[in-house]
Sequence to fold (723 residues):
Amino acid sequence: MSERERIVRVPIGPQHPALKEPESFMVDLHGEKISAVALRLGYNHRGIEKGCEGRTYVQDVYLVERVCGICSHSHSTAFVQAVEEIAGLELPKRAKYIRTLIAELERIHSHLLWLGVAGHEIGFDTLLMYTWRDREQVMDLLAALTGNRVNYGLNTVGGVRRDVSPEQIPEILKVVDALEGRTKYYIELAMTEETLAQRLAGVGKLSKADAVTLGAVGPTARASGVDRDTRRDDPYAAYDELEFQVVTDDRCDVFGRAVVRLGELMQSYSMVRQLVKNLPDGPIAVKAPLKIPAGEAVSRYEAPRGEDMHYVRANGTDKPERVKIRAPTLANTQSVAKMLEDGYLADLPIVVAAIDPCFSCTDRTIALRDGTRHGARTMGWEELVTYGVGWYRARGVDCSRITVRGGPRA
Amino acid sequence: MSVGGAVVDILVFPGLLFLLVFGMAGEFVDRKLYARLQNRVGPPWFQPLADFLKLVGKENVVPHEADKRMFNMAPVFALGSVVAASLYIPLWGTAPVFSFAGDLIVVLYLLLIPTLTFFLGGWYSRSIFATLGAVRAITQLFAYEIPLFIALLAPSLLANTWSISGMARYYSAHPWLWPVNLIGFGVALVSLLGKLERVPFDIPEAETEIVAGAFTEYSGRRLAFFRLAIDCEAIVVASLLAAVFLPFGLGLAPWLGFILYVVKVLFILAILALLRTLFARLRIDQMIAFCWKYVAPIAFLQVLVNLVVRELI
Fold:
C-alpha cells in the first residue's frame, strides 16, 4: 500500500458526540495518529451583529447576552461598557462591584463546567458528575442574586438592575467556602490520579512562541506561559481595586490548562470574598440616555475563556450603527490545529475541549461554498422574494398586499 | 440426562432464560452502583428490561453499504456463544450442565467469539467510525486476552485438570488453596474490563472519539441483542471467575449454594463497577503498553507461583 492509501479520513463533526456545538474537524489518520486536520467553522451563524443594528441599545443588551449561554454576563458587560464609554457615563462604585461579583461567580461556574467536560472527554465521567454537582451551588447562588441560572439579565446601560441584599452576603460566603474545599480536592486529584495525568500531560502541546503567534487568549495562552490577563492589564469594573494573581503555567499542554483553570478558581474565590467585604454603599445605576451620541468604542473583557472584545459604533440614534463581537474562542481556534499536530485521535476531544470552545458564540459569518453544485444556484434577496411570490401566485395565492423589507413589491 | 431435561436446562434454567434475567439484573446492579458512586440517583430496577423492549420496538436500519448477512448475524452469534459458554460453567456446586475434560479451553474460546462479532459487525457496517471501533476492538483483544488466558490457566495447572468442574472439585477438596490464585484473580479482573469494554478500557466504543465504535450503525433489535449479549457476557465471565478463583462453599445445600453463587457474581460485578468509576479512559497505545508491561508479566508470575506450590504439596 502506498503512503496515501493508508490515510483514513475521519469526519469529526459537524455532528459528533464529542462536540456540543456544530463545527467540523476533518481528520486524516495514519493508524491512530493524526497527520492533518482541516478545521471549518460557520455552522451556527445567528446574525447577532446584524440583529443588534435593528434594535435599541436596551434591547441589544439582552441580545448580546445570548451570544453565549455560559459566559453571558461577559458579553453583556463588554457591550454595555462600550456603550457607557461612548455616552460618557460614570458608573456608581456599587454597580461596578456587583458586575465584578457576578463576573467572578460566572467564571467559577464556567471553570467547574469545563472541568466536568474535560473529564467526560477522556472518559472520566465520575469527575463530570462530581464537578457538575458542585457547580449547582454556584448556579443556585447566581439564580438567587440575579433571578436566572444563566442569561442573568443583570446589566443595563449605566449600571446593574438588581442590588445585592445584606442577607445574601452570608449565602455567597457559604457557597464560596464550600466550593473552595471542593476545588482543593480536585487540585489534589489532578496531581495524584494516574490515569488523569496520563491522558492530560504532554497532550496538545502549544509552545509559548506559538501561543503568541497564533493569538491565543485566556487560560489557553496562560497555560503556555503567556502572562496576559485583561483584568490586570486593562482593568475594568472593580478589578483595579482587587488583589489577585494571574495564574500561569509552563507545561504548555492540556494538563497545564487544567492547572491554570483550577488556580483561577482559587483566585476567583478570593476575589469574591474581597468584593463582598468591600461592597460600597450607594446607587446601583445612573440614568442613561436612550439615544447614545455619535462615537465609537472598543471594550475588552476577560471572559472565563479568554479576552472578549466588543466594538460599538453609535450614530446619535437609539440604535447602534455597528456592533462587532470577537468571542475568545475565535482567537483560540487557530491554535487547535497546531495542538493536534502529531497527536492521537483519542486526544482530539480533550485537545479541542481544552480551549473551552464555544463555537456558536464564535460564528460571525457564513461562507457559501459550491453554490453551483448538483444544479443548485445561489439567489440574492431580491431574486428570492420574486421567486417566492411567483411560486405562490402559480398556486393561486395572492401576495400583492404583502410588502417585504428590501424587496420589490409584488 | 433425558432430551427433555436437556432442553429445559439449555433454554430455561440454568440456560438461556436464567442468563437473560440475571444478565439484566447484573446490568441494573452495575448501573445503579455506578450511579450511586457518582452521587447520582441511578435507574429503577426495570430499566434494563425497559431499554431492551424499547430497542426491540424501534426501527431496524441496515446501512446501504453494509454486508447484510454479516451485519445481521453478528448479534445472534454474540448471544449464542455466550449462552453456549454458560452451559459449561458450574453455577453452584461443582457440576455444570455439560462438562468434559478440557472444557475450560472451549469456554475461553466461546467467550472470545463476542469480541470477534463486534469486530465483524463493525467491519461490515462499512462506516468509518464502526471500522475504527472494530479495529480498536481487535487490537485491544490481543492485549487483554492473553493475560486472561494465562491467569485462568494458572489455577488449572495447580489442579492438574483442564476441566472447570474438575478444578471446582479439586479446590473444594483443598479449600485452603484458593488464596494462592489471588494474583490471577486481579489479572483476570483487569482483563475483564478490557473484554467487557469498560472504562478505562472502553477504547473500542469511546463515545467522544468514535461515536459508538463498532455499534455505531446498529439500531433496533440488533443493537438490543448486542447489548443483551454484553450483559450476559458479563455474567458468564463473572461466573467463570467465581468458579475458578472463588471456589469455596461448594458443598452447601442447593438453595444456599445458589445464593452464594449470586453473591459471588455480584461481588465481581461490584468490583468492576468500582473500577470503572475510578479511572479515565486510556489511549489504545497506553492500554496495550499497560497490558504487556504489567498485566501479562504478573499473570506469568501467577503461573510460576502455582508451579512452585504444586511442587510443595
Strands of chain A lie at 7-12, 24-30, 33-40, 155-156, 159-160, 295-303, 306-314, 320-326. Chain A is about 45% helix and 10% strand. The radius of gyration of chain A is 24 Å. The domain at 48-339 of chain A is CATH 1.10.645.10 (Cytochrome-c3 Hydrogenase; chain B).
